[in-house]
Automatic annotation (TrEMBL), chain A:
CDD domains: ABC_Mj1267_LivG_branched. It comes from the Bacteria. Keywords: ATP-binding, Nucleotide-binding, Transport. This is ABC transporter ATP-binding protein. InterPro entries: AAA+_ATPase, ABC_AA/LPS_Transport, ABC_transporter-like_ATP-bd, P-loop_NTPase. SUPFAM superfamilies: P-loop containing nucleoside triphosphate hydrolases. SMART domains: AAA (SM00382). It comes from Bradyrhizobium campsiandrae. One of its GO terms (molecular function) is ATP binding.
UniProtKB/TrEMBL annotation, chain B:
It comes from Bradyrhizobium campsiandrae. It is a multi-pass membrane protein. It holds the Pfam family BPD_transp_2. This is ABC transporter permease. CDD domains: TM_PBP1_LivM_like.
Amino acid sequence: MSLLELRKLNKHFGGLHVTNGVNLTLEPGEIHCLIGPNGAGKSTLFRLILGEHHPGSGDILFAGENITALKSFARIHRGLSVKFQVPGVFKGLSVRQNLEIALQSRHRGAELDAEIGRLLAFLGLEAEQAQTAGNLSHGQKQWLEIGMAISLKPRLLLLDEPTAGMSPEETHMTGEMVQRLNADGMTVLAIEHDMAFVRQVARRVTVLHLGQVFAQGSIDEIVADERVAAIYLGQAHA
Amino acid sequence: MNSFLSLFRRLEGPQTVGRGPAFWGAFAIVLLAALAYPLFSDGYTVGNTVYFFVWVFIALSLCLIWGYGGSLSFGQTAFFGIAGYGYGILTINFGSAYGFTLLALVLAVMIAALFAVLLGYFMFFGRIAGVFLGIVTLAVTLMLERFMAQTAGPEWHVGAARLNGFNGMSAMPPLTIPWPGEPIVLFADVGLYYLVLGLLVLVYLGLRILMNSSFGNVIVAIRENPERAEMLGYDVRKYQLITFVIGAALAGLSGVLYTVWGQYITPSSMGMTAAALPLIWVAVGGRSDLTSTVIGTLIVLAAFQALTIYGSQYALVFMGVLLVLTVLIAPNGLVLGVMNWLGRFASRFLQRAG
Ligand SMILES: Nc1ncnc2c1ncn2[C@@H]1O[C@H](COP(=O)(O)OP(=O)(O)OP(=O)(O)O)[C@@H](O)[C@H]1O
Ligand SMILES: [Mg+2]
């Protein structure tokens, strides 16, 4: 059984057809990258999967269950988790408290403290734990939010541009982290513009263009596809 | 036993200013002074202090909903009024025997809370947030005021209790504790003082524990970023509703105690001015901290009363100026600013000493 299945998803914003009959299937254990020019509808697709937007038509199946009508928090309980495009940390709270809020529903007391410590070490944010999250650098905020997202131990992790604003080394480290999580059994769907990252982690790549699935295949197939190059070039001209 | 201890540990935490022996030492001194104070004062002054204390509960309700929860509610005075009238209607009809006034206090607070369940469900599950939440709650408050103001005619009564329109309801019995021989009547001086002080300490410490618990964590998380909170698996609207209802109960407690204190309640207690004043106390004190809210409210109320001697219009202008100054100098609250400064000063002092 596939882990996630999108069936003919449609979403309009007024006259704008942002998601146009999208079909997409994720197998358990894969790392899948979603690419496409700005405004292709990638983030909107995430919000549909998460229940922040509701599709005009179509169905979303997670582990065989139709979750199209479920509230967002209930989808999280089913095993979804997300890191947003714009880092969504709790800016006014300390780094430590951010992680505590993410972890407190599954751990208590001394065990909670230990888990927070482990996650701080994993993220390399031990020195910053007392800092207000709003004062972190952009890259650190991204890490913190990734940390909060993975602390839920999701079956499917959604990452919207996880390496934006990161140096090439940091990007590579993030890629390694994604691979490590995947080796532990986490399925990952990542939106990413950074082709080095995509090449590093993805087994399969889906190209979204004007709200439609434009192409699908391995990274080499996608890079070799002239039609894909054309839509990116088209955007460069625009 | 273990969970009992962990409750005590929650008295301190990231959501509340004040920790360690220095803070709790100061707390104990203030509490002892408050307990001893009626011995050195007269009944009138003590009664006036009760009046100040009564308002602290509604301030704390706003601190919870607005300061911690991030939802600006103008509706706290609605719950204040509902509970006040509720107490009046109940006790005028059923009297004060057998400790019924104490039951009426609880029932009146529960009526306010029930009203908050209905209103809150409509607002939060209807996804009304931000400015619109303020508008809806204010509209409800003013509607209630208008409604109660036009109930002057004799046809407006609940059992024996006349609503009395703009003049309000009066002559409800004070709180009465049943006692073998002679029941103890808590008039608005020393008797009521100790009851209200006790409730105040209980509510203050209870809220400290609540806000430093995992529930409090979720509440501030929703204030910071409701979307992220939902995406960590929290049912945001449920948490908002629970917070709103707790806040309404506290505002209701204020309303009952006010009614008990003066033995009257009028529609103007739900009017525009009444709705705005708690916002000012809480903003000036420091809405995101319980201690700052309590201290700020008491200071501003005392200053307000002192100025009212020269005319209430000046006092209101002063309130406005105070609010503007707060927004400009210390947007998080003047008292909170001073407390944070004291905290930094103390820790630097300790570092140098140690
Ligand atoms: N809430 C909304 N209301 C109206 N239009 C929206 C909304 N959200 C997104 N859009 C529009 O939908 C289109 C797709 O947006 P989306 O954010 O999904 O693109 P994207 O592929 O994630 O782009 P990027 O690479 O820039 O992040 C854009 O034209 C955007 O302006
Ligand atoms: Mg996007």
